[in-house]
Amino acid sequence: MNFVVGNLVEPVFKPPSEWDALLIAITNGCTRQCTFCSMYRSKQFSMRKDIEEIKMDIKRAGAFYGNRVRKVFFEDGNAFAVKPEILTELTEYCYKIHLNLEKVSSYAHAKDILKKTDEDLKKIADAGFTMVYVGIEIGDDEVLKACKKGTTQDEIALAAQKCYKAGIAWSGIFLLGLAGNDPEKSRQHSIESAELINRMAPQTPIEWYISPLTLSITPGTDLWAQKSRGEFQPCSATQILEELYTMIEYTSDDLQKCIFNTNHASNYLSLKGELSKDKILFLKIIEAGIKDPNVRRPDYLRSL
Ligand code: SF4
After folding, report:
1. Each residue's pLDDT tens digit, 104-139
2. CA atoms within 13 Å, Cβ hemisphere of 275
3. Which atom of ligand 1 is nearest to the CA of 37?
4. ipTM of predicted complex
């Protein structure tokens, strides 16, 4: 269960691994409106201007939860958009108040990482900011543009390297099915995603994280409207697994310490391991899932 204090505006989201974090709103909403995403449609993006008020939230959580807080997650969809000096100040303050704190993280857009200098990122990391969760979605520039992600494969690869250099851990989230159901395009986009994974590999052997999710098209999004007009045809479950297979198949065998995880409830198969070491096993499991629908997570158990 998350630790919460005031000033969070519903709906609130966080990565599954932050289920036990103290959630602190430093922004509301998201800077972007990607065509497939419904998460922050009800909120206009804003940064909280009153830093002292945010500090009061952090302090109040200290009074309420004592020394039980070990993780802080800055909300909302792109909290890393705030100025580097504010991120640094708030991170430092979290450690001052929460004496057993081990991790501070947020969602981040690649462009907002790139806007910060290496020195900015180093200061943020030195203050104790430990990880960014980056919605990568896909490695293909054409699809990134079509879904209004506002970034490119080159930028994402560079943002990852800048984070490693500063000492900030990287968790990248892909979205299977985003390219639609054209078999040739779907395969090509999966190869591009594998290429991006290869380019995001750290130069030094540190842990980094890749988590593919599966697209579900929700009402109110542009993609829902495109699907209703017949302009977007979703992938079948088999095609989704074929994308996952191709993405893994084309990753380099030399990747080190890439923790790969498809445990998210949207996925048809649950894989967890180190990408290069477990590659053959992953491919066998996916192959079985492609051949036999009975080994897939049924739709009623997937969070659609
Ligand atoms: S950047 Fe992420 S949270 Fe924001 S609209 Fe796009 S997918 Fe949604």
Report:
1. 999 999 999 999 999 999 999 999 999 999 999 999
2. 28
3. 8
4. 0.99
Residue corresponding to tokens 């497939």: 36
Please name the residues in contact with 198: beta carbons below 8 A apart, sequence gap of 6 or more. 251, 252, 255
Is the pLDDT reported for residue 58 higher than 60?
yes
How many residues does the structure list for the chain? Answer: 304
Q: In the numeric block, which tokens belong to residue 227?
A: 């699907």
Instruction: Decide: 215 in ligand 1 pocket, CB within 6 A.
Output: no
- Select from 41, 78, 138, 215 the residue to mutate for testing ligand 1; criterion: most ligand atoms less than 8 Å from CB: 78
77 ligand 1 Cβ < 6 A: yes
- With 0-12 / 13-18 / 19 or more C-beta atoms within 10 angstroms meaning exposed / middle / buried, residue 46 is exposed
Query: Which atom of ligand 1 sits closest to the CA of residue 36?
Result: 7
> How many CB atoms lie under 10 A from the CB of residue 65?
14
> In the numeric block, which tokens belong to residue 273?
């391991």
Question: Which two structure tokens, joined as six digits, stand for 292?
Answer: 């036999």
Is the distance from CB of 77 to CB of 30 less than 8 angstroms? yes
Best residue for ligand 1 mutational test, from 13, 27, 30 (most atoms within 8 Å of Cβ): 30
Burial 167-190 (b: 16+ CB within 10 A, else e): ebbbbbbbbbbbbbeeeeebbbbb
pLDDT score recorded for residue 299:
83
Question: What domains lie within the chain, and their CATH numbers?
Answer: 1-108 (3.30.750), 130-304 (3.30.750.200)
Q: Is the CB of 157 under 6 A from ligand 1?
A: no
- Ligand 1 within 6 A of 34 CB? yes
Is residue 202 lining ligand 1, measured as CB closer than 6 Å?
no
The residue whose C-alpha atom lies closest to atom 3 belonging to ligand 1 is 77
Calculate the CA 208 to chain-centre distance. 12
